[in-house]
Amino acid sequence: MKNYIVLIIIILISSCQKSEEKKNIINNIPVEIDSAYVKSKLAYFKVKNNIIEGKGKQLIEKIVNESQFIVFGENHYSKQTSILTKALIPLLSKAYFTNFLAEVGPSTAEKLIELSTPYEKTVENLKEFTTKYKHDEFGNTGDPIPFFAGVEDAEFLQLIRKYNINFHGIDQEYIYSALFFMDELLKEAKSKPNYEEIKQLKEKVDKLIYNRLKDDKKGKTVRAMEAFETNKNIITFFNQFEEGDTKARKIINDLRFSWDIYKRWRKGSHFDRVSYMRNNILKVYKKQKDAKLFIKVGSLHAAKNISNSSYDIGYLTEELAQKKHTVSSSINSWRPFYIDGDSIVNAIEKYKRYYRRLGVFTQFAKKNKWTIIDFKSIKEDIKSNKVKLPINGDYHALKKLLDGYDYQLIIPVDDNITYNLKK
Q: How far apart, in whole angstroms, are the C-alpha atoms of residue 122 and residue 155?
């Protein structure tokens, strides 16, 4: 009898709450955003055999079809993200996306185009390349090309090339690219009469770069970059290439710019790096202003509001879209579960300081499915006074997130990329 009475009370309270919510809606009084509301703004999907399946596919297709710019803010080295990227390529091609922009340097992008020609050889060619130039002794990842060292990365690049989507690099040249670029420069010197002298000089340069980068794992990046800029052998080697050596001079200029950025790390160079990326995007955009661009970068770069004190890529594409009366869609992603050895780490618990204010969204993470939340629709409801953000401290974290992105992806259980290396 007691349990029956409790049940009746619960039902009555719930009914009263729903009645109050309906009354608020009728009177145009916004209700506070809660779990039930967010659930109505999300969908789940899976990726199987390079096909997106589930209700979330409909929202993804809507984003692809209505957008001129898509800025995909990823978690670097995420296997699931690369698998999803591969599944997106056919949808992007069908919707006339003609440009794929990646967080690599322009000269690195040229090398990736070479390595993916013909496209059928992409995975094999990148395996040869990464095996040759990856140095674990450099510390960090030691990858010659960031975000393209995995099998999954090579597979989506192969599909980009298969669908004849133009591929561009917009970022600085990676710190560990220097050795393969020295080899590229030597190739450009083959027709020079003093080739043997250049080759011997290059061997000295290689030795210096290798030793400095090996020492980088001890936190001496700044000093390594300073050494590269001022070393007499490197300067002499670079001076072997005149203005007529177009490809060589482009590599040299890209490297010098990148070394300067690294050298001034934490001394304002972040602004120069972001501006460089923005300017490289504008170069692509200005060639064909009606072209559709898919831009794959780290999540911070994708934000439409101020990110890391800068007006980053998501901010730029939103400005361009507004001027053209088109749509720029910024997508954020979270990696709440990842494999570490034999266990699955719950990042939401591990990084409580970051996630603790975002529970109204993070609670919908699934270990076996992708979650996509329609922030754009939520922002429209806030603007039209249908819902409101909480008045407690969560307001600030939620507003910053919603202002920054149009959609939120929550990744299922993830792992690092499968390194594309010879055994």
A: 7
Q: What is the DSSP string of 351-411?
A: THHHHTT-HHHHTT--SSSEEEEEHHHHHHHHHTTSEE--SSTHHHHHHHHHHH-SEEEE-
Count other C-beta atoms under 10 Å from residue 101's C-beta: 25
Tell me, what's the pLDDT at 265? 87
Integer Cα distance of 335 and 356 in angstroms: 15
d(CA 414, CA 39): 23
Q: How many CB atoms lie within 10 A of CB 243?
A: 7
- Positive/negative CA dihedral, 19, 24, 25, 30: negative
Q: What is the DSSP secondary-structure string of 235-249?
A: HHHHTTS-TT-HHHH
Residue-wise pLDDT tens digits, 307-329: 999 999 999 999 999 999 999 99
State residue 7's pLDDT score: 54
Token pair in block for residue 90: 């056919």
Res 21 pLDDT > 50: no
Q: Do 398 and 391 meet the contact criterion of CB atoms below 8 Å apart?
A: no
- CB count in 10 Å sphere of residue 382: 16
